[in-house]
Amino acid sequence: MIYNKSIKAFKDSKGLIPGGVNSPVRAFKSVNCDPVFFDHGYGSKLYDLDGNEYIDCISSWGPLIFGHADKITQSKISEYLVKGTTYGAPTIIESEMAKKIIELVPSIEKVRMVNSGTEATMSAIRLARGYTSRNLILKFSGNYHGHGDSFLIKAGSGAMTLGLPDSPGVTKNIAKDTIIADFNSLESVSEQFKKNPEKIAAVIIEPVAGNMGLVESRKDFLLGLRKLCDENKSLLIFDEVMSGFRLSKGGAQELYDVIPDITTLGKIIGGGLPVGAYGGKAEIMDYLAPNGPVYQAGTLSGNPLAMSAGLSVLNRLNDKLYEKLESISKKIHEGFLQNIHETGTDAIINRAGSMMTLFFTENDKIENYNDAITCDLKKYAKYFKSMLDEGVYLPPSQFECMFISSVYSEKDIDKLISSNKKSLQLI
Question: Which domain holds residue 52?
Answer without folding.
Answer: 4-66+318-426
